Amino acid sequence: MHAIQLTLFILICLFLALTLFYSIRSRREPDAAKRGLYTARMNICMGLMLVLIAVTQIFFFSESSFRRIFGTVLVLIGVFNVFVGIRNHGHFDRLLR
């Protein structure tokens, strides 16, 4: 159980770092197509991070209705971010080719 929590924590930190990295890259990029590509990658990483946070909230802490609702909201927002990020990544990737 402890190994799973540690792995999730490391993955959350990794996706947080990638989100920050792509956020900074997208804000400093003068080309609109590359900026959109970096923003899409940021959305994908942020969505995965939110889903992992929701998993830790739902499964590894005490049972409470607030944690369940909070985790469910995070899962919905995270899945939406991943979906939009993948859709936008495909769009901007085609623009750059």
Which secondary structure elements does this structure contain, and how are they paired or packed?
Layout: H1 2-28, H2 32-59, H3 65-96
Helix pairs in contact: 1-2, 2-3
Give the helix level as a range of percent.
over 70%
Shape field: elongated
Order of helices and strands: HHH
The number of E-state strands comes to: 0
Strand content: under 5%
Low-confidence stretches: none
Count of individual domains: 1
Biggest sheet architecture:
none
Give me the secondary-structure category: mainly alpha
Radius of gyration, whole Å: 15 Å
Taking the alpha carbons of the first and last residues, their distance comes to: 45 Å
Task: Please report the number of helical segments.
Answer: 3
Instruction: Kindly report the average pLDDT value.
Output: 95
Q: Characterize the quaternary organization of these chains.
A: single chain
Task: Describe the protein.
Keywords: Membrane, Transmembrane, Transmembrane helix. It holds the Pfam family YtpI. This is YtpI-like protein. The chain crosses the membrane at residues 6-24, 44-62, 68-86. InterPro entries: YtpI. The chain is mostly helical and 97 residues long. It has one domain (1-96). Helix content is 90%, strand content 0%. The protein has 3 helices and no strands. The chain has helices at residues 2-28, 32-59, 65-96. Helix 2 (32-59) runs antiparallel to helix 3. The mean pLDDT is 95.
